[in-house]
């Protein structure tokens, strides 16, 4: 996986260097940002803990065979998750 990621990074650099739709300053900045990025391969530790996964998604209701309802439930779940991160008073 690391070889694939490194190959992608190399291709992005080549693409940016050869692009004619951005000036050299933007190319340099984009390339330096790309090289500064940390590529994390794998996931967080909780992803392998079934108890933690159940806790994380306990408020998400899945309805077997109802794709549309499940999509609506996912949207509602994500909105509620974002709302919980907001401060009480704005």
Automatic annotation (TrEMBL):
GO terms for molecular function: metalloendopeptidase activity. It comes from Biomphalaria pfeifferi (Bloodfluke planorb). Gene3D superfamilies: Collagenase (Catalytic Domain) (3.40.390.10), Neutral endopeptidase , domain2 (1.10.1380.10). One of its GO terms (biological process) is proteolysis. This is Endothelin-converting enzyme 2. SUPFAM superfamilies: Metalloproteases ('zincins'), catalytic domain. InterPro entries: MetalloPept_cat_dom_sf, Peptidase_M13, Peptidase_M13_dom_2.
């Amino acid at each position: 996986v690391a070889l694939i990621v490194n190959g992608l990074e190399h291709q992005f650099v080549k693409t940016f260097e050869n692009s004619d739709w951005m000036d050299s300053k933007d190319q340099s900045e984009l390339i330096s940002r790309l090289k500064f990025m940390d590529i994390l391969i794998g996931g967080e530790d909780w992803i392998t803990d079934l108890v933690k996964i159940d806790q994380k998604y306990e408020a998400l209701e899945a309805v077997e065979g109802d794709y549309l309802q499940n999509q609506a439930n996912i949207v509602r779940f994500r909105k509620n998750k974002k709302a919980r991160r907001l401060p009480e008073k704005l």
